[in-house]
Automatic annotation (TrEMBL):
Pathway listed: Amino-acid biosynthesis; L-threonine biosynthesis; L-threonine from L-aspartate: step 3/5; Amino-acid biosynthesis; L-lysine biosynthesis via DAP pathway; (S)-tetrahydrodipicolinate from L-aspartate: step 1/4; Amino-acid biosynthesis; L-methionine biosynthesis via de novo pathway; L-homoserine from L-aspartate: step 3/3; Amino-acid biosynthesis; L-methionine biosynthesis via de novo pathway; L-homoserine from L-aspartate: step 1/3
Protein name: Bifunctional aspartokinase/homoserine dehydrogenase, chloroplastic
Function comment: Bifunctional aspartate kinase and homoserine dehydrogenase that catalyzes the first and the third steps toward the synthesis of lysine, methionine and threonine from aspartate.
Keywords on record: Amino-acid biosynthesis, ATP-binding, Kinase, Lysine biosynthesis, Metal-binding, Methionine biosynthesis, Multifunctional enzyme, NAD, NADP, Nucleotide-binding, Oxidoreductase, Repeat, Sodium, Threonine biosynthesis, Transferase
């Protein structure tokens, strides 16, 4: 074989067939005192002394003559489907150990024929560029740097090879290095390296790794040849970072090469190629993948496997979405859409050569051979069948940051041909890249996204281009720039043409409270693009990803106040989580628990069976702001709910802000709804305007369906005249149990012990708790009342109202037992019972809370334990037959159950199946 570039690199193959260097070349070498075979003369460096074209042409013509002799035409390559092509990047051949694994992979592929494309060992390409850089800038250290390159390959070869193979490789390596030394010296003198010079120097990394690997495969007893792809792969440069393969010419050369090197295993150099004039060049960015794809196409291989360090193509950037999954298959179009958006897939260029012949590309992890990777191919027939779920039509999501939207708006645009031309002409003039365009059919505005760094120039160009239209008032809003934007794209073949996909996407964004600035969907049907504010981008990505990939209703929860109710809720969540996930697809994850002193945060969800232990081990100082930021902003789940299980009005004062941020709020805490009226009204108005939910069923009657019953009546048009009831579990228990056998204070202690009371039982005995419930129901029914508008009978003995603490109060209460015993006796004497009731009178528009007496046959007289009873008198449920809800209205289990059912209501609002 007589390839020039192979001769330069002194490969074992090429040496055997080397042509004699031409006389002219030898004499040039002598006159410059360079090694006889110095590639400098072949690379155009001599153009400084003569014409580069002529020198190159002279040298290369002889090679071409040999390559393209007649017989090449007659050679047939073995049948395509017998070939399996592999590509191993720099990290795959980064050390002798890794090169051994690569050899094992090649050997274990049971295809009849195999071609492996290899990159330079990791870091070598950079080392080679650095050599050039150093030599050009006359930095002497290039000599030491070249020694490091030599040493890296020498020691790797010593590890891998022995005998003649080792001797031969090392001798050629030393020759190459001395040639490179001479070239670099010349570059040093000239202070300049041409592009082809650079490409030639840099390409050595691939030559050496291909030679070592092929020797290693041979050492395993297999027939194997290495291929310098510069002899075969012919490309035409189209721009500084792009080349077009010449398939016809490359095919001819491949046949010729193969006729001279028939082998069942070929190790080919990636990245490097030649121009039609046989000048060494490279395939530029992602060159080795491209080499493998071109080789696959030239051989019409049965598949091309790209070995890398990830398990395949992810459904979204796993650094942003920790639950991103590896996609099993992607169509060619989907793969290039994903790669455009920065997903670590293949360069779109790589896909085209193999797509023409329907050759599948498989992306696999060299470090995890058990993972089957991602297969990129034409959509499988089964995928095309009907009945696919909307979810499966979206393959992945990608984002682009640092964009700005430009909006050109005005009346003078509609129906005026040439407006778009003028706009984008101006953009082109400043060399900006338009990433997405959207124009509504009214034609009054065009908006487009450009990289943020280009937007100032774009705006300036547009202003000057449209100055006249602006002055004349034909463009009204002129050029508005919206900075700090990002693009979120959903990719999936056919998704855009399937009803429901975009609705699902936009719904997920709406539910995560994300505002969309612009939308574009090409009729290619592979991609739906939305422009959002940059700060929303990751949350949006997670929202849509989880909508399509996670359970439809994955909810991140933050529990505030793990006291009696909060901790009982955590137990119930622990016991029910698996059933909810399995049967209802509801995935509830407690990402944080905070008390007033300590908080526990988790990135994936707290293990609820040992949250107390974890809190002791990993708890940190409570900080509500940090807590909320963590639960809402710091993870992959789009829906956030904060469950306030405190009785704290400070915590309640944050609801407005949380709802505004799109955080759902669920609470048994009555403080927000019974606090200042204006704040309540603002809170409810905000909640009604947004997709954010605020549920508080447990604030009245604990788990009993009081709020929901009232809502049902109101929303279906019933007219309520009165709501009357025993609203306090504590006071119900007290008056149901205080029947003369035990002292009043003893019964109060029992209620506290049973978990019915407020954290401070005086809130119950004072009637405040009932008043709060009355206010909540009154406001829910439309009355605009303040807590102070409700007259309340206070059962806390006057001297104890100012006691320092709840404990102090409980200690002193027995001193006042007599007062209550007297009230009880008076009632009994009259054949009545004592009941502490609340009333909302919607006719008189007022409320009242008091201790009343009821006849022993009244429904309120037949309560037991912590029963609440609430009677709704309405137009449909008249005075004599009110709608009655009755049952335990306090206690840990029923209250936590009420909160839990609000959480499930939220899940169903978010789309959980019923
Ligand atoms: N006990 C019951 O039967 C019912 C209670 N509720 C309501 O449930 C809520 C909780 O009641 P319990 O669990 O009985 O009270 P609790 O006193 O046992 O628990 C409240 C917890 O909140 C914590 N806390 C207080 N302020 C906090 C703050 N700023 N940040 C973080 N944590 C804070 C406390 O340290 C405590 O752990 C109250 O609002 C109560 O009105 C509602 C219906 C029934
Ligand atoms: N302390 C309250 C608890 C429920 O709101 C009561 O006793 O009803
Ligand atoms: Na309730």
């Amino acid at each position: 074989m007589a390839s020039l570039s192979a001769a330069i690199s002194h490969s074992p193959n090429s040496l055997a067939h080397d042509t004699k260097p031409r006389k002219n070349y030898q004499s040039q070498c002598r006159s410059l005192r360079l090694p006889r075979r110095s590639p400098l003369f072949r690379m155009g460096f001599v153009s400084r002394w003569g014409s580069r074209e002529t020198t190159n042409a002279r040298i290369f013509t002889s090679v071409t003559d040999v390559l393209l002799d007649e017989s090449a035409e007659k050679v047939q390559l073995p049948k395509g489907d017998t070939w399996s092509v592999h590509k191993f990047g720099g990290t795959c051949v980064g050390s002798s150990e890794r090169i051994k694994s690569v050899a094992d992979i090649i050997l274990s592929d049971d295809s009849e024929r195999k071609l492996a494309v290899v990159s330079a060992m990791s870091k070598v390409t950079d080392m080679m560029y650095d050599l050039i850089e150093k030599a050009q800038s006359r930095d002497d250290s290039y000599v030491a740097a070249l020694d490091a390159v030599l040493e890296k390959h020498r020691s790797t070869a010593l590890d891998l090879l022995d005998g003649d193979d080792l001797g031969s490789f090392l001798s050629h390596l030393h020759d190459d290095i001395s040639n490179l030394k001479a070239m670099l010296r010349a570059i040093y003198i000239a202070g300049h390296a041409t592009e082809s010079f650079t490409d030639f120097v840099v390409g050595h990394g691939e030559l050496w790794s291909a030679q070592m690997l092929s020797s290693l495969v041979r050492k395993n007893g297999m027939d194997c040849k290495w291929m310098d792809t510069r002899e075969v792969l012919i490309v035409n440069p189209v721009s500084s970072n792009q080349v077009d393969p010449d398939y016809l010419e490359s095919g001819k050369r491949l046949k010729k090469w193969y006729s001279q090197n028939p082998s069942k295993i070929i190790i080919a150099t990636g990245f490097i190629a030649s121009t039609p004039q046989n000048i060494p060049t490279t395939l530029k960015r992602d060159g080795s993948d491209f080499s493998a794809a071109i080789m696959g196409a030239l051989f019409k291989a049965r598949q091309v496997t790209i070995w890398t360090d990830v398990n395949g193509v992810y459904s979204a950037d796993p650094r942003k979405v920790s639950e991103a999954v590896i996609l099993k298959t992607l169509s060619y179009q989907e793969a290039w859409e994903m790669s455009y958006f920065g997903a670590n897939v293949l360069h779109p260029r790589t896909i085209i050569p193999v797509m023409q012949y329907s050759i599948p590309i498989i992306i696999r992890n060299i470090f995890d051979l058990s993972a089957s990777g991602t297969k990129i191919c034409h959509p499988l027939v089964s995928d095309k069948e009907h009945g696919q779920s909307v979810e499966s039509l979206v393959k992945g999501f990608a984002t682009i940051d640092n964009l700005a939207l430009v909006n050109v708006e005005g009346t003078g645009m509609a129906g005026v041909p040439g407006t778009a031309h003028a706009i984008f002409g101006a953009v082109k003039d400043v060399g900006a890249n338009v990433i997405m365009i959207s124009q509504a059919s009214s034609e009054h505005s065009v908006c487009f996204a450009v990289p943020e760094k280009e937007v100032v120039a774009v705006a300036k160009a547009l202003t000057s281009r449209f100055q006249q239209a602006l002055d004349a008032g034909r463009l009204s809003k002129v050029i508005a720039v919206i900075p700090n934007c990002s693009i979120l794209a959903a990719v999936g073949q056919k998704m855009a043409s399937t009803p429901g996909v975009s609705a699902t996407l936009f719904n997920a964004l709406a539910k995560a409270n994300i505002n969309i600035r612009a939308i574009a969907q090409g009729c290619s049907e592979y991609n739906i693009t939305v422009v959002l504010k940059r700060e929303d981008c990751i949350r949006a990505l997670r929202a849509v990803h989880s909508r399509f990939y996670l359970s439809r209703t994955t909810i991140a929860m933050g529990i505030i106040g793990p006291g009696l109710i909060g901790s009982t809720l955590l137990e119930q969540l622990r016991d029910q989580a698996a059933v909810l996930k399995e049967e209802f697809n509801i995935d509830l994850r407690v990402m944080g628990i905070t008390g007033s002193r300590t908080m526990l945060l988790s990135d994936m969800g707290i293990e609820l069976s040992r949250w107390r232990e974890l809190q002791k081990e990993k708890g940190e100082a409570a900080d509500l702001e940090k807590f909320v930021q963590h639960v809402h902003g710091n993870h992959f789940i789009p829906n956030t709910v904060l469950v306030d299980c405190t009785a704290d009005s400070v915590v309640a004062s944050h609801y407005y802000d949380w709802l505004r941020k799109g955080i759902h709020v669920i609470t048994p805490n009555k403080k927000a709804n019974s606090g200042p009226l204006d704040q309540y009204l603002e809170l409810r108005a905000l909640q009604r305007q947004s997709y954010t939910h605020y549920f508080y069923e447990a604030t009245v009657g604990a788990g009993l369906p009081i709020i929901s019953t009232l809502r049902g009546l109101l929303e279906t048009g019933d007219k309520i005249s009165k709501i009357e009831g025993v609203f306090s579990g504590t006071l119900s228990y007290i008056f149901n149990s205080f029947i003369g056998k035990r002292a009043f204070s003893e019964v109060v202690a029992e209620a506290k012990q049973a978990g019915y009371t407020e954290p401070d039982p005086r809130d119950d005995l004072s009637g405040t708790d009932v008043a709060r419930k009355v206010i909540i129901l009154a406001r829910e029914s439309g009355l605009k009342l303040e807590l102070s508008d409700i007259p309340v009978e206070n059962l806390v003995p006057e001297p104890l109202r100012a006691s320092a603490s709840a404990e102090e109060f409980m200690r002193q209460l027995p001193q006042f037992d007599q007062d209550m015993t007297k009230k009880l006796k008076d009632a009994e004497d009259a054949g009545e019972v004592l009941r502490f009731v609340g009333v909302v009178d919607l006719v008189k528009q007022k409320g009242v809370v008091q201790l009343r007496t009821y006849k022993k046959d009244h429904p309120f007289a037949h309560l037991s334990g912590s029963d609440n009873i609430i009677a709704f008198t309405t137009r449909r449920y008249g005075e004599k037959q009110p709608l009655i809800v009755r049952g335990p209205g306090a206690g840990a289990q029923v209250t936590a159950g009420g909160i839990f059912s609000d959480i499930l209501r939220l899940a169903s609002y978010l789309g959980a199946p019923s």
